[in-house]
């Protein structure tokens, strides 16, 4: 029995029509929204429109091969985190290492049974969604709880530890007003004595570093996060 698919969008890139037909049929049957392309140049054009969650690339293709396509995709901000999978007849170790070094998430050698391929893809999507649980995605702002990292419009924002914890707390429930005492207890703890002014200073620094005001002051009450 085939693994249950996780909903997602996949772009399949291969210059062999029969392979495109077989793979796209099986992916659609498994529940994936699938688009095809026959070379690297077409793949980049369609990726910009389709915005796939996963791009499956052959390596040996005319016009632009898979390695060059992967490299060019990774240079574009919108595809830096997109999953890329090489599915290719090149099954030597050197080609696999080169593909993974280019930023691919997985490397599968042809031939492979369609059901096994779908299972491998399902595993990649499950891994993706598990990773996203550690992140807060709020428009152009991403807060990575696991890495203590913040990015805004693909630019990394360096925050001090308490600034990060404060931003993460407020952003965890957009629109909700957090009371000052609640913020002090959750970010600084009950054993550390700090004043209300400490919160004000940290919020001002967060606003300055991100470059936009995402935190609203509710006078006499507390603060809330709003995009």
How many DSSP E strands? 12
The low-pLDDT segments are 1-5
CATH topology of the largest domain: Rossmann fold
Order of helices and strands: EHEHEHEHEHEEEEHEHHEE
What class would the helix/strand composition place it in? alpha/beta
Assigned CATH class of the largest domain: Alpha Beta
Shape: elongated
User: What portion of residues belong to β-strands?
Assistant: 15-25%
Largest sheet, in brief, is:
5 strands, parallel
CATH architecture of the largest domain: 3-Layer(aba) Sandwich
Give the number of domains.
Answer: 2
The neighbouring-strand order within the major sheet is 2-1-3-4-5
Termini Cα gap: 44 Å
pLDDT averaged residue by residue: 85
Radius of gyration: 22 Å
Structure commentary:
The chain has 227 residues and is of the alpha/beta class. It folds into 2 domains: 9-132, 3-Layer(aba) Sandwich (Rossmann fold); 136-225, Winged helix-like DNA-binding domain superfamily/Winged helix DNA-binding domain (Arc Repressor Mutant, subunit A, Orthogonal Bundle). The protein has 8 helices and 12 strands. Strands 2-1-3-4-5 form a 5-stranded parallel beta sheet, with helices on both faces. Strand 8 (149-152) and strand 9 (155-157) form a beta hairpin. The longest helix has 19 residues, at 114-132. It starts with 8 loop residues before the first strand and ends with a strand. The model is unreliable at 1-5 (pLDDT under 50).
């Amino acid at each position: 029995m085939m693994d249950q698919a996780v909903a997602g969008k996949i772009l399949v890139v291969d210059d062999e029509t029969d392979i495109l037909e077989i793979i796209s049929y099986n992916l659609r049957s498994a529940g994936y929204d699938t688009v095809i392309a026959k070379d690297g140049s077409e793949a980049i054009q369609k990726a910009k429109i389709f915005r796939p969650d996963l791009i499956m690339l052959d390596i040996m293709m005319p016009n632009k091969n898979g390695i060059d396509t992967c490299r060019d995709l990774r240079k574009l901000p919108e595809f830096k985190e997109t999953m890329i999978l090489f599915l290719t007849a090149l099954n030597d170790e050197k080609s696999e290492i080169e593909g993974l070094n280019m930023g691919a998430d997985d490397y599968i050698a042809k031939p492979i049974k369609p059901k096994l391929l779908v299972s491998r893809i399902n595993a990649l999507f499950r891994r993706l969604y598990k990773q996203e649980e550690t992140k807060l995605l709020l428009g152009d702002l991403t807060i990575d709880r696991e890495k203590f990292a913040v990015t805004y419009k693909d630019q990394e924002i360096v925050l001090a530890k308490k600034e990060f914890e404060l931003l993460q707390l407020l952003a965890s429930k957009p629109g909700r007003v957090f009371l000052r005492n609640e913020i002090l207890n959750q970010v600084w703890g009950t054993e550390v004595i700090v004043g209300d002014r400490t919160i004000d200073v940290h919020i001002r620094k967060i606003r300055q570093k991100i470059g936009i005001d995402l935190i609203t002051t509710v006078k006499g009450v507390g603060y809330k996060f709003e995009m």
